[in-house]
Design a protein that fits this description.
Elements (H helix, E strand, L loop, with lengths): L11 E3 L10 E3 L2 E4 L2 E4 L4 E3 L32 H12 L3 H4 L3 H6 L2 H28 L6 H9 L1 H33 L9 H21 L1 H31 L4 H4 L9 H14 L16 H30 L2 H6 L3 H9 L6 H30 L9 E3 L6 H13 L1
Antiparallel strand pairs: 1-6, 2-3, 3-4, 4-5
Helix pairs in contact: 1-8, 1-11, 1-14, 4-10, 4-11, 5-6, 6-7, 6-14, 6-15, 7-8, 7-14, 7-15, 8-11, 8-13, 8-14, 14-15
């Protein structure tokens, strides 16, 4: 691994090569490495810990980095932020706008509810597997890092390019367009908002999220925490509204949940596909493993807290919807949460469109936060452009990788 400054710039430095190769930097004729120091032309010797313990300095940022190595991303993601990143990216607009996909495919309230729970269980099992992988391999990049270890650079290279150029940018583009749709509709009530206005608002949202994440990791995590808390409040409002309707005795759509004919195997399979899409994002924390404080504890704890919380929210929200409207009304509604708000919240119905905008903005922020780390980790190994592995020296953010993702997202 080596590093150097960008041409004509003192704000970025570069790290490249394999993570298990020591970091080297030449200052005033001496070459500094991970726990080693020596002359530029001579052999390297061991550097003792300045604390007087005599032990080698411990690697803080995974393989190939030291505790005081300023060019590496620092560990600033704690347990609460880890849970917020998982929950904030998993809960997007789908559960508020179109949670009836499973109802359409199964034709049964009871079966769709069981599939919601089964998808949550599958997501939890997959995330626990990732927790084990993440504690053994503390490099950022999630699947990319695990492909590198298990199958070598070729599959990891292909994954990094597909994710960087197609999957992550298109995912964020969809989320931001959903945000813009509901944000603009709040000011245009008599007609459908122009497509050009929606795209401009989506672009402004992308630029705002980019600025936040380039400016500071702490700021990016603060935004994620705040918006995740806000969307959980919105979920709680829906659940409380459903509980109110259930207390009034509106249980007719739940008592005969399994009366309809059993769906076919193909219908159940497509329903699982739809449900698992709603749980997408359970692996996002593994993209930032190098930045998690005490990852051996906080990574599995965040997963164990976050995914069951999302599963519980999805289950209770669906029960709340069915307490206020029939399955047919859910299927025909273009925005289920808005219909629910109009029936339950009265003058406060505007909270539901606001909830969708808050939820999508937080989800987009978490998506970019994770995607930038994949770009940074892959380019550090030479799988992407070298410049994408640059890190801002003072702010310690992977700004080039974030900007690259937003550029591709704008094209999408």
């Amino acid at each position: 691994m080596y590093q150097h400054a960008l041409p004509n710039s003192e704000h970025f430095r570069f790290t490249n090569g394999h993570n298990n190769v020591p970091n080297k930097n030449t200052i005033n004729g001496s070459t500094y490495t991970n726990g080693h120091v020596g002359t530029a032309d001579g052999p390297e010797t061991t550097e003792a810990d300045t604390s007087g313990s005599g032990r080698m300095r411990k690697s803080l940022e995974g393989r190939g980095s030291t505790q005081n190595d300023s060019i590496h991303l620092k560990r600033r993601v704690g347990l609460f932020s880890g849970v917020a990143l998982i929950v904030g990216t998993m809960i997007g607009s789908g559960i508020f706008v179109s949670p009836s996909g499973l109802l359409v495919r199964t034709g049964s309230v009871g079966v769709s509810f069981l599939i919601w729970l089964a998808c949550g269980l599958l997501s939890l099992l997959g995330a626990l597997s990732y927790a084990e992988l993440g504690t053994m391999n503390t490099s950022s990049g999630a699947e990319w890092a695990y492909f590198m270890d298990a199958f070598g650079p070729a599959p990891a290279f292909l994954f990094s390019w597909v994710s960087t150029l197609v999957l992550k940018p298109s995912q964020m583009a969809i989320i931001c367009l959903s945000f813009a749709q509901y944000a603009v509709e709040a000011f245009v009530s008599e007609c459908d908002p122009p497509i050009s206005v929606i795209k401009m608002v989506a672009l402004l949202a992308v630029i705002m999220i980019l600025f936040v994440n380039c400016y500071s990791v702490d700021l990016g995590m603060a935004v994620q925490n705040i918006f995740t808390a806000a969307k959980l409040v919105a979920v709680l409002i829906v659940i409380c509204g459903g509980a109110y309707k259930l207390a009034q005795g509106n249980v007719q759509h739940l008592t005969n949940a399994f009366n309809n004919p059993a769906p076919s195997v193909g219908a159940v399979a497509t329903a699982f596909y739809t449900g698992l899409w709603a749980y997408d994002g359970w692996n996002n924390l593994n993209y930032v493993t190098e930045e998690i404080q005490n990852p051996s504890k906080n990574l599995p704890r965040s997963i164990i807290i976050g995914i069951p919380l999302v599963t519980l929210c999805y289950a209770l929200i669906n029960i709340s919807y069915l307490a206020a409207m029939s399955p047919i009304e859910m299927i025909e509604s273009e925005a289920v949460a808005v219909t629910f708000g109009n029936r339950i919240l009265g003058a406060l119905a505007w909270l539901m469109p606001l909830s969708v905008t808050v939820s999508t903005f937080g989800s987009a922020n978490g998506t970019l936060f994770a995607a930038g780390r994949l770009c940074f980790a892959a380019s550090r190994e030479g799988h992407l452009l070298d410049i994408l592995s640059y890190v801002h020296v003072r702010r310690l953010t992977p700004a080039p990788g974030l900007i690259f993702h937003v550029s591709i997202n704008s094209i999408c």
